[in-house]
Amino acid sequence: MADKEERIPEPRATDSLLGQADAEGEFLHAFNTGRPAHAWLITGRRGIGKATLAFRLARTVLAGDAPDAHDPGAALFRRVAAGGHADLLVVERAVDEKSGKRRAEITVDDVRGVREFLSKTPAEGGWRVVIIDSADQMNTNAANAVLKILEEPPSRAMLLLLAHNPGRLLPTIISRCRRLPAKPLDEEDLAELLARLRPEMSLEDRQILVQISDGSIGRALGYSEGGGLGLYRDAVALLEKLPGLDVAGVHKLADGVARDKTGEAFQTIGDLMRWWVHRTIDGRVRGSVSASAGGLDRWFEVWEKNNRLFERADSVNLDHKQVILNAFAAIDAAHSSS
Fold this sequence. Notes:
five-stranded parallel β-sheet, elongated
């Protein structure tokens, strides 16, 4: 079986893009009419193809009159995929030399070279392009450095800023960019991508991934690699017994998650529980599950409480097992009062 790197091409090396035709079309219209914005803010949830879209747009801008910018056999495509195009700069979180993992934020050192890069004459006579992935991960100093560039953008230069959570960006950065929203993938596109990237998986497992991944191929692939399907089945088995909490079962699940020191299992169970509550609220709003207005209020409270619990867990070093126990207890209480 091919390894993960062979089966999942990096965004810079991906030659096709599903689900983002509207965003690409909006950009192409502006670019082809000669009035492109100097900075674009590509927004949307994680894993829906924002980075793949950004590299696709960058190739379009860099191609000039050259044909087949998105042909994997073309020289331009290969240079972008290899990180060797002189007119493209990609800014990401740097890797910590001690841990070997990416840092939590983009620092001013990571963006320090952007101004100098953009001020140079394009090496190939066209445009210079910078991709910042992801802009909402910039710390204050890095954000201010990028803002100064946006205030006085060089000619023939374009910035493509990706943001999972644009609300974390400085309002002044947002105001100087043209917003380009990327959409979650629909079920058909997500199923097609999973069939292409995970052909060895059973149809049932792929269908579950489509259901729980919220339109995100990145999330679906993460679940398929990180034991997400097993956690889903364990969590659903407990949630379907509610009201009436299987205390021993929840403790067993929470213990298993807490033993994972990478934190990936905790992130996954948090995503799955948020998905479960969201699905429950949506079902009640649509009338597929009967509920009083008061019952809906209670479910919205659970949604907000569990979101806060999982989001604060790492920032304030909350005990992962206790967070999971509290989340299950909150869901059980909402079931009992509905």
